[in-house]
């Protein structure tokens, strides 16, 4: 398994799964600040010029290698390949995919816009900042309510948890206080302590040369058009 990766929340989702499942894999760094996601060879497997992407050289059908882009699709692919972290009963599977898509369509994009307008935008726009900080807060509340009386998002640890957790890691930068969400905080701390989580995050340590984004990196990441 090759993993085209950079240490972002979406990248961390996949290392979380691979470490939990014990699948052997090789990281192929894609430095998104340097524009490596636009390289023609990468675009053949990642047409949205985004990482992560995996290439499975031992697919279940025994055929040619399979590439998968989009982190949610990758998690589903890996869960189906291994038979792990996705409920086998109908109702459990439905709930797991519901919450996976909730993260993909809600928590990730809204927290991402929060990061952009609060941390990176060259002009501080109060309306945009307030809009996305509040929407992030609402989504935290949704997850907190879901976790009431539950150890994980669905009964057992699953790809739904792996998808959501990395987007909660930067909660302070998102203007959120986990003390306001006790169920979520308990869940967050439990996942953070898992050996596979520790190992997954260690994979990305040292990849970024600077702790903050340079102006040149911002131009590459935030100035994209179809051209």
From TrEMBL:
Its domain of life reads Bacteria
- In this protein, which residues make up the domain named GST N-terminal? 1-86
- Identify the InterPro entries for this entry: Glutathione-S-Trfase_C-like (IPR010987), Glutathione-S-Trfase_C_sf (IPR036282), Glutathione_S-Trfase (IPR040079), Glutathione_S-Trfase_N (IPR004045), GST_C (IPR004046), Thioredoxin-like_sf (IPR036249)
**Residue ranges occupied by any GST C-terminal domain in the UniProt entry:** 89-212
Q: Which family, according to the similarity comment?
A: Belongs to the GST superfamily.
**Name of the protein this chain belongs to:** Thiol:disulfide oxidoreductase
The scientific name of the source species is Elstera cyanobacteriorum
